[in-house]
Write a structure and sequence with these properties.
globular; Rossmann fold; 12 strands; two-stranded antiparallel ribbon; about 280 residues; eight-stranded mixed beta sheet; binds adenosine-5'-diphosphate
């Protein structure tokens, strides 16, 4: 066996000097104490990932936990709109201060830094990736029980960076009935496996429409497959959210925190946000 040169990344020998794989975890800001980080992921845009992130954060805050949302969906940031945030992020030599929602949820999003929040973010991937890292390292989050990370859809550069750089406790996968659910879930599950992160729950959004007259559930986008999909991938917690015009109004008009529902109770129980 060749003499050890201590370069484990480029050597296949299993010698006694072999070091653990390199960790890419980034340190929190020295004034942050974040205890749980939950990433909310989806296969494609428009399935309600930001809405689910906002509902989870609102309910967690209502239950008395110190809550934060890191909006990693840099090119499609919709979290500030859902919470009706108008203030901009401030900062000093120690770091940036997130903007607080009416329930006290701390939010960091690119839109809270831009002068014109309707201007498109036409940035190359390394710049986007660095912004997300800075949202973790340079933001003074303070004491946080639960941080929800609104991920960009898919399995590209930014999700990979978040998985490698932040100490993610688990992911929540959001799909809709019309998506190719099995394939989307399989991709998310495989990515989570590669990153050694558990899948905490599967949420089927826009699952059905409740008839206002008879209460019957109408499968607008096709029959639900959430239960068997969760079973197939050994995900023990799933939830269904109906299509609800009050919900989209609340989210699109900045008052998502005033919307009460119990659809995500199982997910909240799974992540431990119970009192
Ligand atoms: P994503 O983050 O996956 O791109 P969003 O959360 O921004 O998706 O949702 C896209 C749009 O669909 C928003 O206008 C939102 O209000 C609406 N929407 C999402 N889920 C529902 C639902 N269950 N009922 C009605 N409207 C919904």
């Amino acid at each position: 066996m060749a003499e050890c040169n201590h370069d484990c990344a480029n050597c296949s020998s299993n010698c006694s000097d072999r070091t653990k794989p390199q960790s890419f975890l980034l340190p929190q800001n020295s004034k942050s104490k974040i205890r749980n980080v939950i990433a909310v992921v989806s296969g494609k845009g428009g399935v309600g990932k930001s809405l689910v992130t906002s509902l989870l954060a609102s309910e967690t805050a209502r239950r008395g936990f110190s809550t934060a949302v890191l909006d990693a969906d840099i090119t499609g940031p919709s979290i500030p709109k859902a919470f009706g945030l108008k203030d901009k992020v401030t900062g000093d030599e120690e770091g940036f201060y997130p903007v607080c929602s009416s329930l006290g949820i701390k939010v960091m999003s690119l839109n809270l830094l831009l002068d014109n929040d309707s201007a498109p973010v036409v940035w190359r991937s390394p710049i986007i990736v660095n912004s997300v890292k800075q949202f973790w390292t340079d933001v003074i989050w303070g004491d946080v029980d639960y941080m929800f990370v609104d991920m960009p859809p898919g399995t590209g550069d930014v999700p990979l960076t978040v998985f490698q750089s932040l100490p993610i406790n688990g992911i929540v996968i959001v799909t809709t009935p019309q998506e190719l659910v099995e394939m989307i879930v399989e991709k998310a599950v495989r990515m989570a496996d590669l990153m050694h992160v558990p899948v905490m729950a599967l949420v089927e959004n826009m699952s059905y429409l409740e008839c206002p007259d008879c209460g019957k559930h109408i499968a607008v986008f096709g029959e639900s497959h959430v239960e068997e999909t969760a079973e197939r991938f050994n995900i023990d917690t799933f939830a269904r959210i109906p299509i609800d015009s009050d919900l989209s109004k609340a989210s699109d008009s900045g008052i998502i925190e005033r919307y009460y529902s119990n659809w995500l109770n199982a997910v909240l129980a799974k992540i431990g946000a119970v009192r």
